[in-house]
Amino acid sequence: MFNGLFNLEGKCAVVTGAGRGLGADIASLLAQSGAHVYLLSKDAGKLDDVAARIHRNGGACTPVVCDLLKDDQLERAFDDLPRLDILVNNAGTNIPARLADVTTRDLDFVINLNIRATFLATRAAVRKMLEGEATDDRVIINISSQMGHVGAPDRSVYCMTKHAMEGLTKAAAVELAPRIRVNTVAPTFVDTPMTQPFFENEQFKSWVFDRIPMGRLLSSDHVAAAVLYLASPAAAMITGTSLRIDGGWTAQ
């Protein structure tokens, strides 16, 4: 009974930003749990590496080269799916800077990937999900951040986009119930290739660890486990919620 609650056998999932780091680990765990995972990234070589890892572990996946900032590629990626049960909007970025120093180019890039692409992928996924027979076990999971609940210096744009993601999640959850559940996973800083350069700055490292009561960074495996939980039948009555895995950061 317990194991069955986390069984994704027969499900079709899409993970954006699946070519490395957190996205790759999420895709791997979903595949390990029985889903056929479509891996979306613009980097074909990295997709092949992730696909090979999944296949070695007995999972099923299909790499899909897709630049989410190009609308035609995004739409085609979802149109070509045979069906869709689970979407994980994982692709995102951050370009830290003091607010007064943020360039318009960086502002547009972060907004376009973190908000616009997430919205368009969600819209395409909802259209695909609603094509099928009426069931209530389809799921959208947005990878947000603790910064979707608080503020921080040098992260005005990132915080803005993650707050927007939390708002989209709540609105979509209300509109799409009961057929589609929509939630976010909101991690603290995760040890990934994207965050590692930040922690070379000792001042920044101290600032982060001083705000995490648990006293350590989050592993990508724990984020993937949270995604699996929200994607699974175990979370059948959870929608419009943000699952914060932040070591207590936002409890203060």
UniProtKB/TrEMBL annotation:
Protein name as it appears in the record: Short-chain dehydrogenase/reductase SDR
Keywords: Oxidoreductase
SUPFAM superfamilies: NAD(P)-binding Rossmann-fold domains
GO molecular function ontology, one term from the record: oxidoreductase activity
Similarity remark: Belongs to the short-chain dehydrogenases/reductases (SDR) family.
Domain of life the protein comes from: Bacteria
CDD domains per UniProt: SDR_c
Statement: the UniProt record of this protein carries the keyword Acetylation: no
The keyword Oxidoreductase is assigned to this record: yes
Pfam families named in the record: adh_short_C2 (PF13561)
Gene3D superfamilies assigned: NAD(P)-binding Rossmann-like Domain
InterPro entries: NAD(P)-bd_dom_sf, Sc_DH/Rdtase_CS, SDR_fam
